[in-house]
Amino acid sequence: MATVIRMPQLAAGGESAAVQAWLVEPGDAVDAGQTIVEIETEKAVVEYESEVTGVFAGTLVAAGDWIAVGSPIAVIAAQGEALDVALSEAGGEPAAEPAPAAAATEPAPPEASEGPAQTEVTAEPAAQATDRTRAAAEPREGRIFATPLVRRLAAERGIEVRAIPGTGPRGRITRRDLEVYVEKEATAATQEPDAVSSASSTSSTPRPAEPEASFTDLPHTGMRRAIARRLTESKSTVPHFYLVADTRVDELLALRAQINDGAGVKISVNDFVLKAVAYAFKDVPEANAIWTDDATRRFEAVDLAVAVSVPNGLVTPVVRGADSLSLGGLSAKVKDLADRAREGRVKQHELEGGVFAVSNLGMYGTEEFAAIINPPHAGILAVGAATKRPIVTDDGELGVGSVMTVTLSADHRVLDGALAAEWLAAFVKRIENPLSILL
């Protein structure tokens, strides 16, 4: 008997999700536990595994469609069962593939309310638009294999994925393939206007006026809508207050240089910051808590969220038990989570939970900023760049030292001013005595 696959609820409270890509085709044998589809939630792309063994009969929704949780998305036929019969009994028909022109636009989740569109001024050369139309008009036949990241980046650039030559296994389109395609497109766009300009200079016909710049609406992705909704709710419902501290990091930078000298794994300043944050919660355990409707929930282990910039958004994967990891182990864990988050391979459960978050913009040269709390976290530490500044030495002399400014955004429902100040002082003490972070 045929089995109807329904859209699973992969995120707590999630009401809808989108099919990112089907990994099997009609007629393919499917084993229980085999990954058959990539599903995009508001935070991540999740691989969904079949719960039954059989033959894939067909899909009921196309890739890119946002549908409600529990809706039928595919049918798996029993061994020996006719595929068309299985689909008919399930009450569905194979989903039609979206037209090439519509593939570059990612539809919004059905429950999202319409708001004012954000626009970006662009001036796309006519030759580039012509090349893109020509490429889209000559798509490759058959199924196209591409990573979720490539599909998203291509959609943002208005590029038809089928037009990109793939060099990966089974012709899979990689990010490098996309970059090569964009480079070739840009080169063609710069050459053709020169030819047009040369031809027009020999003609007596007056040169037509330059076209006005056009606007391009970039449809909101599920992730962008989730960020907008959650952070708006946070600023509206969570009573933020802020504490700022300057930390001397000369000893930390010197210790980091010694550790990285000849070491196979490089430790970053952010790794030291995360470990100091974890230890500060062990020093002030009363601060290791979150707000719930019925109680203040206090934790034993320290689960830290790390803000990671990804294409078209931001995610905060969680490092479980950061207080129990060595500095090297913490560094490796953060790197793994960040790499998989940027590739769209982070798991949903790795984005949930946590008590506190760290956001570091120091690598961009930002010296000081305040971050917005991501509920249910009770706070977030915004970390700026370490810069040379005038300081007063322990001997009372004026000198120059490396100073890093941090800003604590705290939820006043959980952390009172004195408790937040005590925690921040514990963090500064750890950072300014970096050997204590290694113990």
For this entry, give a set of tags:
single chain, 439 residues, alpha+beta, 6-stranded mixed sheet, 20 strands
Structure explained in plain terms:
With 439 residues, this protein is of the alpha+beta class. The protein is 31% helix and 24% strand. A six-stranded mixed β-sheet has the order 11-20-19-18-14-17, with helices on one face. A four-stranded antiparallel β-sheet has the order 1-8-6-3. It has a four-stranded antiparallel β-sheet with strand order 5-4-2-7, with no helix packed on it. A hairpin with a 5-residue loop joins strand 19 and strand 20. Helix 3 crosses helix 5, helix 8 crosses helix 9 and helix 8 crosses helix 10. The longest helix is centred in the middle third of the chain and has 27 residues.
Secondary structure layout plus pairing:
Blueprint: E1 3-6, E2 16-22, E3 29-30, E4 35-40, E5 45-49, E6 54-59, E7 66-68, E8 72-77, H1 83-89, H2 100-103, E9 119-122, H3 126-137, H4 148-157, H5 175-201, E10 214-217, H6 222-237, E11 240-248, H7 250-260, H8 269-283, E12 289-291, E13 296-298, E14 304-306, E15 308-310, E16 313-315, E17 318-319, H9 327-342, E18 356-360, E19 379-392, E20 398-411, H10 417-432, H11 435-438
Parallel strand pairs: 14-18, 18-19
Antiparallel strand pairs: 1-8, 2-4, 2-7, 3-6, 4-5, 6-8, 9-10, 11-20, 12-13, 14-17, 15-16, 19-20
